[in-house]
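Exercise 3.2. Students should predict the tertiary structure of the chain below and write it as C-alpha cells, then compare their answer with the key that follows.

Predict this chain's 3D structure.
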Amino acid sequence: MNIFAPLIRRPAGTSLLALGLTLAGICAYLLLGVAALPSLDFPGVYVVANQPGASAQTMANTVLAPLERHLGQIPGIDDMYGNATEGAASVSVRFNFSRTADSAARDVQAAINAAAVDLPSGMPSPPQYFKFDTSQIPIVFITLTSSGLPQDKLYDLADTLLKPAVAQIDGVAQVQVFGGTPHAVRIELDNNALAAKGLTSNDVANALRAANVTSPQGALSDGHTQMTVTASDGLQEPAEFARLLISVKNGTPVRLSDVAKVYSGEQDEYQAAWFNQEHTVGLQITKRPEANAVATVEAIRARLPQLRASLPSNITLTPVFDLTQTTKSALHEVKVALLISIVMVVLVMLVFLRRLRPTMIATLSVPLSLAGAFVVMWALGYTLNTLSLVALVLCIGFVVDDAIVVIENIVRHMEHGMSPMQAALTGVGEIGFTVISITLSLVAVFAPLLFGNNMLIMLLREFSVTLTAAVVISALVSLTLTPALCAYLLKHEPANPPPPGRLERAVERFDRGMLRMYERALDWAMRHRRIMRWQPLILLIVTVLLGMAVVKTAGGTFMPEEDTGQLQVEISADANISPAQLTERTQSVMKIMLDDPAVLDQLTMLGGNDAGGAVGNTAQMFVDLKPRGSGPGERPENIKKVIERLSKQYDKLADVKVSVSASQFLGGGGSGDKGGQYEFQLVDSNGGDLQPSALKMVRQMRTMKEFRDVSSNFDQVGKQQLLKVNREAASRLQVSMGDVDTALYNSFGQRQVSTIYSDINQYFVVLTTGSADSISPEGLLNLRVRNNQGLMIPLSALAHIEPNSTPLRIRHHNQMEAATITYNLAKDVPQDSGIKLVEQAAYVAGLPAGIRVDFTGQNQRLQQAQSNGMVLLIGSIIAMYIVLGILYESLGHPLTILSTLPAAGAGAFLAMLVTQTQLSLMAIIAILMLIGIVKKNAILMVDFALVGERERGLPAPEAIREAALVRFRPITMTTLVAMGAALPLAIGFGIGSEMRQPLGIAIVGGLLVSQLLTLLSTPAIYLWNHDRKIRKAARRERRAEKRRLKALPAT
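Answer key:
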C-alpha cells in the first residue's frame, strides 16, 4: 500500500500545502535572530569586591579566600577562577549546562551574604555580582570624547547618565566604565606639617568624618504649619574642606589647608584611555549568556541618538570594536555560498537530466526544505549563525538527492510505457522505502547530539537539528509533491523527437562511456569479491594513518582562527613603572599601531575599569582593522600577516612587552588573563610556593622558538617596603598595631574617609600623603602615631624598613593558588602541538613533584573536543547500524552499507593532508556529514537488489549487478550534487572562510574517494555477505543431517 498515493493524486492540494509551508518559512526567516555561533548559554557569574589601598596578597587572604570558600559550595560549578590585585578581588564562576544563569545567580548572592561575616569590616561596599557570558568578549565599546570637558566630568556623565540607560537594554549583562574614575576631593597630607602641629593623620580623618555628615534633622510644627529642619552639615567644594578646622593648638586654629593640599581630582588617578590618541572615557559592554549579540548591539545602537541628545553638544559618542559587524559580514558570505550552491546543484541536475521540467521539479525541494528548516529553527529559538547556515548550504546536496532518485525512477517507468500518474505511483511505491531508509539513517547519525551537555554537543546541536529538519522535509516533499508534479507536468517523449543537440549528444556519449567502464570494473570486483571484502578494513587502517599524518603535519585546533578584522593587544611594562612612564610606553605602542596601513581605529585602556582588578604596569588595546579587500580604504593582506608585521616592530621596543592576537567569535574563556591566546595553570597540590616553578616554566618556554609572548602572573612582581615592627618597643611606647595600621592606611591607602552627596550621585573624599613621602622609606619612618598617653611617636622608634617584593596579581583556580601562564604560538605552529610542547617544557624545566599542569581556556576546549568527538563518531555509527538493522530486519545488510564509511574517512583526511588543513571542530562536523552522505549510495544499491531478489526472484549476483548498473546514474548525480553544494565552502572566500573551508575540503575529498571506491566495494561485499549466509546455511543443513542420521536406529 502506498501511503502517499492520496497526496500524489491531488496535485492542487499538495501544491497549496507546499505554498503554505513556503509562506511560513518566509515569516520564520524574517523573525530569526542573527549570531556568529549558536548560543552556548554557559551560565557564568562574576563577583567583584574592592578594598582601596590593600595589597594583592591582603586581598587574596582577607577577601578572595572567604568568597571562594562560600562560592565553592554551590553545586554545578565547572570552574572557578579567583583574581586579586591591589585594592580589588574578583571571582569568575562558570557553571555547567545543568544550571541556568538566573538560578546560579541566586546561589551566588546567597554565598556572598554568607561570606559577609568573614570579610573585612572596612570595605566601602559589599561584593557585587554580574551574570556574564563566559566567552568574556565585550560585544561593543562606546567612547565619549570632548575637547572642552575634563576627564572626571566625562566620567561622571558616562557613569550617571549612560551606564544606567545602557544597562537597562535587553540582553546587556554588565556595563563597565573605563578611562577614568569618579570625581573626588583629594587631600594630600604633609606629614612634616602634621608633626609640627602635633597632629596625626587619624586626627584629620576623624575631623573630616565629623564635619561632613548628612543625616535627618526632623521637622517643626506649630499646629498650623509644618516645616522641615535641615542644617548645613555637609561640605561640597575643595575650598570648604580647606577651611575645615582640624584642631586648636595653643589658641591657634589649625585648618586643613595648614597641613594638607586640598584639590578637586579623581578617585583613582591611575586610569586613562585613548581613542586614536585622543583622551576618552567609555563604556565596555558584555551580554547576558542567553542573549543574542547582534540583537543586543542593534538595540544599543538604536538607543544612541536618544543618549546623544541627553549629552552636551561638545561630546562625541562613538561605538567601536563592534564584533557583530564582522558577524553580519561573515553571515552574508555564507548566504552567498548558499546561493552559489543552489546554482551549482541546479546546473548539475540539468546536465544529467537534460530536461527542464524534471530539473525544476527537483529544484522545488530546495526552497521547501529551507522553508521547513526555518520554521523549525524559529520554533526552537535558534538563530541564523555560521553553523546553522553552513548546515543549510550542505543540505542543498541532501535535499535534492531524494527528489532526483524519485524523478529518475518515475522517468524510467515512463520510458517503459507507463502513464505519468501510474509511473508516479509505481515509482514512489518502489523507492519510498529507500528514501525513508536514507532519511532515518541520516537522522540516526545526529541522534547522539540530542544527549549530553558539553560544549561540543551544544555547538553541534543547532547544526544537526537544522540539517535534520531540512532533510526530513525534503523526504516528505520528494514522496508527495515531487511525484504529484511529475504526474501532472511530465509527458511522454513524442514519437519523433527532435534530434538531440551537440551538448546533449556529448553528455549521452559520456554517460554511456562511463557506464561501460563501470560495468567492466564491476564485473571484475564481483569476480574478486574475496579480495574486495578486505577493502573496508584496509581503508579503515589507511584512514587512521592519514588522520595521524594530518595531526602530525597540519596539526589540530579547537576552532580555525578567523580573520575577524579585529585585534586585541596586551601591553606590560616593568612591575615598578610609574603611571607617567607607562603612559609614555603605551603611547609609543599606539603610534606604531596607528601608523600601520591596515589599522582603522584603536582604543587603548590603561588601569582597567570601574570593576577594579587593574594591574599598574599593564594596558589593553582593541583595534579595528580596515575591511579586507583590494580597493581603496581596504587591506589586501590577511590578519595573520598584519599580526606578524606588528609583532616584529613591537619586538624592537625596549622596556615593554606587547602581545598581539586576533579577536575571535568564540572567546578563550579560562582565567580571563589577556596576556596570550592560550593558557594553562600551574597548581601545587601540596600548597607550596608556586613562584619559583612558574618562573622556571616561563624561562624554559621562552627558549623555545615555537612560543611567543610567554608571561605569567608572577612576572608582575613589584617592590615592597616591609615595615618590621618591634613589638616589645611598641608595647613599651604604648603604641598598638591598630594605631600603626591606621596611620599607614590613612597616609598611603587612598582611603575614602568621607562621602559627598549630590543630587544624582555621591563622591568620595580621598585621603593620602604627598608624593615625596609616598615613595620615600624615610618619609614612611617619619610618620607619627599618638600613643595611649597622647605623645607623638615616630615609626622609626619602633620599626625599621626591609625592602621586599610582592606579586601584583594573585591567581586561584578552583580555590587553590595557581600560576596562570599565557602564550601565543609562532607562525604555523598548531594548537595541539603547543599543548605537547608545554608538557615537554614542564618535563625539561624539572617542576617539583606535586605541581601539575591544568590546561584551561581554548586548550581545555580542544582536549574536550578531541575526547568527545571520538565518542560522538562512534555513537553515530552505532545509532545508524541499529536503525538500518531495524529497517532491513537484518544484521548483515547494515554492515554492507556501513562498509562505505572508511572510504569517506580516507578521502577526507587525504584532502586535509594535501591542503594542510588542521583537524578541528569543523573537520568533526565534516566527518559526521560524510557518515550521513556516503551510506546513501549503498542504500540505493542494496534496497534495489533486495527488491529484485524478493519480488522478481533474481539470484543475488544478478540482482546486485542490475542494482549497481541501474543506480549508477542517480548515485553519480547525487554525489556530484553534494560535491557542488560543498565546493563553495571548500574554495573559501569572504569573511569567516577560515572556519568554513575545512568543512568543504573534507566533504569534497570524502565524497570523491568514496564515489570511486564504494561503487565497486558495495556490490562485492553484498555478494560476499550473501555467499557467507549460503555457506552458513549449508553448514547448518549438514549438521542437521548428521543429527538426523545419528537419531536413526542401528540396522
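Discussion points: The chain is about 55% helix and 20% strand. The CA atoms of residues 663 and 790 lie 61 Å apart.
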